[in-house]
Design a protein that fits this description.
It is a single chain. By secondary structure, this protein is of the alpha/beta class. The chain has 5 domains: about 180 residues, Rossmann fold, CATH 3.40.50; about 80 residues, no CATH class; about 190 residues, 3-Layer(aba) Sandwich (Rossmann fold); about 180 residues; about 250 residues, Lambda Exonuclease, Chain A. About 45% of the residues lie in helices and about 10% in strands. The strands form 6 sheets. The chain has a 6-stranded parallel β-sheet with strand order 3-2-4-5-1-6, with helices on both faces. Helix 4 crosses helix 22 and helix 5 runs parallel beside helix 8. It comes from Magnetospirillum molischianum DSM 120. It holds the Pfam family PDDEXK_1. One of its GO terms (molecular function) is helicase activity. InterPro entries: Ds_break_AddB, P-loop_NTPase, PDDEXK-like_dom_sf, PDDEXK_AddAB-type.
Length: about 950
């Protein structure tokens, strides 16, 4: 009597298994309770329990003992009394111990020591290699038998590196009294087999759903078949595949694993019987897929394909989306539609985590939280992000961006109410963090505040007290990871403390907080394994450690919708299955080269080829393809790059064409519906803003520089002078060109005021000395200083030469002098104000006005056309005696000094030939402009003449220029 059975892919596995076991138990509940069922995963155990409840209508039932194969000793003592198996190291402690070995080995070799986070990534790869070696029951010592001289030089280096596993790691495990996790499972399986051999169990033992890809599990399946009441139920064994194809199976084929396990059990494929008499309801569909996945060696059989009926692909559709966003949107719509039918279930199966997250985000537009079996990385959750951000803030010594990212986090409260704390942080941001960075640390923040706001000063003092010990450790050249982690967690709890609510409750509360607390506990226990690190490396190391921790939500998710990875989907069932991300390199993933061993080395050592993973992925695809209704989706482009369809889709399409089959259902409707979700009912082209405030609200006092803005972009004057809106500087901004220009202006002002009549013996040296003092006042960043200072030194040399040429002709010099002129206008007096960079009175009594430009000065044509009226209007004020301390006089010349740095450091350009005429024309033009805007019907239009629009404006976004600007303006025509 055979002990090996199979269930075809077209039948729901756990439902069919539950029905079979219920029928076998009959009316005796103790028979069912006496069974022991081994399943591949915990999720499969839960699915089988749910299936029993569905089939019995939810009535009370004594279930069989359900055990996941990967956790045979999880919840009860060894039933056979075998020797106790040594424990495995906790996962994080294992990774950190390997990290310490990697750092020590690289330091011993005298090479460049990797950073701790880089070493942790290497250690994680080593751990995966150890898991693979253990799964195949190989001895790491065998690595030494791979003769280095037979391989390329870089493989020799790799083999030397792997001496960690052959020489050091075994002794560490022995010292700890531990073994590898994979070896632990091997020993547990061996102990279970030995116990069964000595005393075979009398109760039924059923192993269901396993492919036996791991040698130890294959041995366990073989041992179960030898038991008096043992049975093995394989998922989706293809009993119809021809013998030549069966003989030619390669590791990339979905049936390859079954061939190996049947060989290990010692039976032929024809001896495997169906578990149920029910035939596969989708036998034609599976026959089609069998042909599509036929081994390459027997593909000549495609010439003799037997036609399949048109209903073969009933229930199967394919969707090729333009990109991942559209693919995720269409999938979300399909899942949402499933809920419109009572009791219908639907699931997305994909290894693409980005696609899974997109689908989850799309479903939230309907308020649906979907169960994602892969969970979320801890570092992307709220408490995980808070831990990351608090570490970054302290490590960067309260740099503006890092500090605001942390202090604006919802968990940050600093002992105050969260709302009050956030309000203080916003005030601190506006007070000192916009613009160039303050000096480092809380001391720099305090200096920037200058005690002007006691509440903000108190906030900075509190932050210094809370973070002080943590900042000190992070600045240390060497500290133990255990100390840094402990102090960091204490700081995070203190920062999370709110008025009336302790920080630990806020930080570690809730389902996600509990997961973060478990990670924190593991970190505290595992940290001593790494030893000491430089404190500045802690934030990156923390992020790398947290990336391996996953949070899975068990509450508040929809019970009928799921996202499963291929492993979690095994044996699961749903009315609608969507197989997403079917692109080559995603599903299946690329058969990437092993970073540790070449293919010949893997073969010599005994490891399976990379294609074995593709074979397992192919089996998962096969199981999903047999669902009652299945949708195959892919994106034609990802990040703008064309993609290649999965090999399974390509082969399926080829066989379908040969058989005259095609997908009947039109799936483009899903893409169209998703597009309509965010498309407005109609498109209304916006018009440029044209506000018409009352004349009483319009400005009656503007500077000469604002007059140019008034002409080129009236809306900017409206926003600044009427709405009183001022743009904030960027946070943590480098000194911009405008700020550099202000510094140069200040240097020249101080120089002229210091030497108004006679130049010093070395004017260049004096300019550089003044410049150094001004830069020290305004520039805190060494990088900013290094960028701007060489330019200023060049400017200083040019200005000194120019001053030496000009001074003999001058009677007096006036720097940064203020003036104003009152103009009669229809709505009342209008005051024009100015602050001239420099006004020189020559010995003949005429004036020369100079405007410093560290950027590009206006052209003579722009000045003549009236679009650059600053200097002409200053001349008009000077002609009428509007500058304090400067008698009225004619202006002989209007000059621009372009202070550009480089070689030469500057150049002098005239604004026009006839300064007096330019001044009169500019004043006449201003009178006309004032009269126009004194009319209440005149709007403050945005950029009315695009060809003369300013090169920069703080109010482009407020005016929504990009929404209404014409193509000609965007193109500069």
């Amino acid at each position: 009597m055979t002990a090996v059975f199979t269930l075809p892919p077209g039948l729901p596995f756990v439902e069919s298994l539950a029905a079979h076991l219920l029928a076998e138990a009959g009316d005796n509940p103790m028979v069912l309770a006496g069974m022991e069922v081994l399943l591949p995963t915990r999720r499969a155990c839960r699915a089988l329990a749910d299936a029993f409840l569905r089939l019995t209508g939810g009535r009370p039932l004594l279930l069989p003992r359900l055990t996941p194969l990967g956790d045979l000793d999880s919840d009860e003592p060894d039933p056979a009394g075998t020797a106790e198996v040594a424990p495995a190291l906790p996962a994080l402690e294992r990774r950190l111990t390997l990290t310490r070995l990697v750092l020590a080995m690289e330091a011993g070799r005298g090479g460049q020591t990797p950073l701790p986070d880089q070493a942790l990534r290497l250690a994680s790869e080593l751990a995966r290699l150890l898991d693979e070696i253990g799964a195949e029951r190989l001895d790491p010592a065998g690595l030494a038998a791979l003769v280095p001289d037979e391989h390329a030089a870089h493989w020799q280096v790799t083999l030397n590196f792997l001496s960690i596993l052959t020489q050091v790691w075994p002794s560490i495990l022995a010292e700890r009294g531990a073994i590898e996790p994979s070896e632990r499972l091997n020993q547990i399986v061996a102990a279970r087999i030995a116990a069964w051999t000595r005393s075979p169990p009398t109760h039924p033992v059923i192993a269901a759903g396993s492919t036996g890809s791991r040698p130890a599990i294959a041995d366990l399946l073989a041992a179960i078949t030898a038991l008096p009441n043992g049975r093995v139920i394989l998922p989706g064994l293809d009993t119809d595949i021809d013998d030549s194809s069966w003989a030619a199976l390669d590791p990339g084929h979905p049936q390859y694993g079954f061939k190996a396990v049947l060989t290990r059990i010692g039976i032929e494929r024809r001896e495997v019987k169906p578990l149920l008499p029910t035939p596969d309801p989708r036998v034609d569909r599976m026959r089609l897929l069998t042909e599509a996945l036929r081994p390459a060696a027997t593909c000549e059989a495609w010439r003799d394909l037997i036609p399949l009926p048109p209903e073969t692909l009933a229930g199967v559709t394919r969707l090729d989306a333009p990109g991942p966003r559209e693919e995720a949107g269409a999938i979300a719509l399909m899942l949402r539609e499933a809920l419109d039918v009572a009791g219908r279930t639907a699931a997305l199966i994909t290894p693409d985590r980005a696609l899974a997250r997109r689908v989850g985000d799309e479903l939230e537009r309907w308020g649906i939280r979907i169960d994602d079996s892969a969970g979320r990385p801890l570092n992307l959750t709220e408490p995980g992000a808070f831990l990351r951000l608090s570490a970054r803030m302290a490590a960067e010594d309260f740099a503006p961006i890092e500090m605001l990212a942390c202090l604006k986090h919802p968990l940050a409260a600093g002992g105050r109410s969260p709302a009050a704390f956030r309000a203080l942080v916003r005030r601190l941001e506006i007070a000192v963090l916009h613009g160039p960075r303050p000096a480092t640390g809380t001391a720099g923040l305090r200096d920037a505040l200058k005690n002007k706001d006691p509440a903000l000063t108190a906030l900075v003092d509190d932050l210094e007290i809370l973070a002080g010990p943590f900042v000190t450790l992070l600045a240390a050249p060497e500290a133990t990871l255990a100390d840094i982690a402990r102090v960091h967690l204490e700081f995070a709890e203190a920062l999370a403390t709110a008025d009336g609510q302790p920080g630990p409750i806020r930080l570690w509360g809730g389902e996600i907080g509990e997961a973060a607390a478990r990670f924190a506990a593991e970190l505290n226990e595992a940290a001593p394994a790494l030893g000491t690190i430089a404190g500045r490396h802690y934030p990156a190391l923390l992020e790398e450690m947290m990336a391996g921790a996953v949070v899975r939500s068990t509450w508040e998710t929809h019970p009928r919708l799921h996202i499963w990875g291929p492993l979690e989907a095994r044996l699961q069932q749903a009315d609608i299955l969507i197989l997403g991300g079917l692109n080559e390199g995603t599903w299946p993933g690329a058969a990437e080269a092993d970073p540790w061993m070449s293919r010949p080395m893997r073969a010599a050592f005994g490891l399976p080829p990379p294609e074995r993973r593709i074979g397992l992925a192919a089996h998962d695809f096969t199981q999903g393809f047999a669902a009652p209704r299945v949708v195959l989706t892919r994106a034609r482009r990802v990040e703008g790059t064309p993609t290649v369809p999965s090999r399974w889709l390509t082969r399926l399409e080829a066989v379908m064409t040969a058989c005259g089959l095609s997908f009947v259902e039109d799936t483009t409707q899903w893409l169209e519906w998703h597009d309509l979700l965010d498309r407005p009912g109609q498109w209304v082209r916006p018009t440029p803003p044209a506000p018409r405030p009352p004349v009483t609200a319009r400005p009656r006092r503007l500077s000469v520089t604002e007059i140019e803005t008034w002409m080129r972009d009236p809306y900017a004057i409206y926003a600044k002078r009427i709405l009183k809106l001022t743009a904030l500087d960027p946070i943590d901004a480098d000194a911009s060109a405008a700020e550099y220009g202000s510094m140069v202006h200040l240097v020249l002002e101080r120089f002229v005021n210091a030497f108004p009549h006679r130049l010093p013996p070395d004017p260049t040296a004096e300019l550089i000395a003044i410049g150094r003092a001004v830069f020290a006042e305004a520039v805190a960043s060494p990088s900013v200083w290094a960028f701007w200072w060489p330019r200023f030194v060049a400017i200083a040399g040019w200005v000194a030469e120019r001053e030496a040429e000009r001074r003999p002709e001058l009677e007096s010099i006036h720097a940064e002098v203020r003036g104003e002129l009152e103009i009669d206008a229809p709505a009342g007096p209008f005051t024009l104000i100015a602050k001239a960079d420099r006004i020189d009175r020559r010995k003949d009594g005429a004036l020369e006005l100079i405007d410093y430009k560290t950027g590009q000065p206006p052209t003579i044509r722009e000045v003549a056309a009236g679009y650059a009226p600053q200097l002409p209007l200053e001349a008009a004020i000077a002609h009428r005696g509007g500058f304090a301390g400067i008698p009225a006089a004619e202006t002989a010349r209007l000059l621009y000094w372009r202070l550009k740095g480089g070689e030469p450091g500057g150049e002098e350009r005239p604004a026009g030939a006839d300064a007096a005429t330019l001044a009169d024309e500019a004043l006449d033009g201003l009178r006309a402009l004032i009269a126009v805007f004194d009319d209440p019907n005149t709007p403050y239009a945005a950029r009315p003449h695009p060809e003369h629009a300013p090169k920069y404006s703080d109010y482009l976004h407020l005016a929504r220029v990009r929404e209404w600007a014409s193509g000609s303006e965007d193109d500069g025509e």
